[in-house]
Amino acid sequence: DTAVSQTPKYLVTQMGNDKSIKCEQNLGHDTMYWYKQDSKKFLKIMFSYNNKELIINETVPNRFSPKSPDKAHLNLHINSLELGDSAVYFCASSQEGQSDEQYFGPGTRLTVT
Amino acid sequence: GENVEQHPSTLSVQEGDSAVIKCTYSDSASNYFPWYKQELGKRPQLIIDIRSNVGEKKDQRIAVTLNKTAKHFSLHITETQPEDSAVYFCAASRWTGFQKLVFGTGTRLLVSP
Fold first, then answer.
1. In this complex, do A43 and B106 lie within 8 Å of one another by their Cβ atoms?
2. Which of B45, B98, B101 sits opposite A55 (nearest CB)?
C-alpha cells in the first residue's frame, strides 16, 4: 500500500507550458504539503493545506497554484514554466495530534527545457 | 523567520566509525526538531525527532541531542554501516496552530566499507 503517491514521477516539458502534478495520501491525514528540492538538494516548503484550507503559502511565484479538492488530495499546477522551475517536487502529509512526522511521496522530477 | 544551518555538508567515515552532524537554529521558540534521511533518488524519511522538553533521545545506533540555550542540536550515528550512506536533513519548527518545517541544507554521509 502506497501511503503518499504522486503522478507523474517524471515530467519533461518546454518553457512556457502549463503542467500539473497530482498527490494523493491514503493515511487519513488532515494536512498536506508541497516541497521543492533543487539541484543542490535544498528542501523548501511551498504550500500546506489543512482540511482543504491553505495554511502555508511561502514566497512562491503566483504561477504556482495548489488545489485541494478533498483532504486526501493536493495538486500543484504550474503555469508558464521556466527553466528555474526544474527540480524535484515532493508532496507530504501529516496528522495533527499524532506524531509530527511528515510522510513524503516519491517525488516528481520536473525538467524544463 | 526561522533559519537552520547544518554542518558539515559532506562527511566521509569508515564503516564502524561514529558520525556527528550539527545544526543550529535561530528561532528560540522552535520546539520540534526532526531528522530526515534521504537515500539517493528516494523520498526523505524521518529517522528520529526530539522536542524542546527533552535533552537527548536514542534509538538503537542513532541519537539526537538538543541544547536549547545554545540553539543547536546534533545527530549521532554510532557503528556506521554502508547502508547509512545518504543525505541527512535536520529541521526545526514551532507550533503556531500548524507545523512549518524549516530544513537545513543537508549533509551527505558516505560510509566506506
1. yes
2. B98
Query: Which three-class secondary structure state does DSSP give residue B83?
Result: helix
Angstrom CA distances, B82 to B15, B85, B86, stand at 7, 6, 9
- Residues B48-64 pLDDT 10s: 999 988 899 999 999 99
The amino acid at A21: I
**Can you give the pLDDT at residue A1?**
63
From CA B65, how far away is CA B46, in angstroms rounded?
16
Shortest distance, CA B13 to any CA of chain A (angstroms): 21
Contact B109, B87 (CB under 8 A): yes
Q: For residue B33, what is its C-alpha cell?
A: 526538531
B76 DSSP β-pair partners: B20, B63
| Cβ <8 Å between B99 and A45 | no
Q: For chain A, where are the E strands, in sequence order?
A: 4-7, 10-13, 19-25, 31-37, 43-50, 53-57, 64-70, 73-78, 87-94, 103-104, 108-112
Q: Quick one: how far is CA A32 from the chain centroid?
A: 8
Task: Tell me whether strands B107-112 and B10-14 are parallel, antiparallel or unpaired.
Answer: parallel
* Residues A62-112 pLDDT 10s: 999 999 999 999 999 999 999 999 999 999 999 876 678 999 999 999 999
- Which residues in B lie closer than 8 A to residue A50 (C-beta atoms)? 98
Q: Is residue A8 reached through a cis peptide bond, with omega within 30 degrees of 0 on the bond before it? A: yes
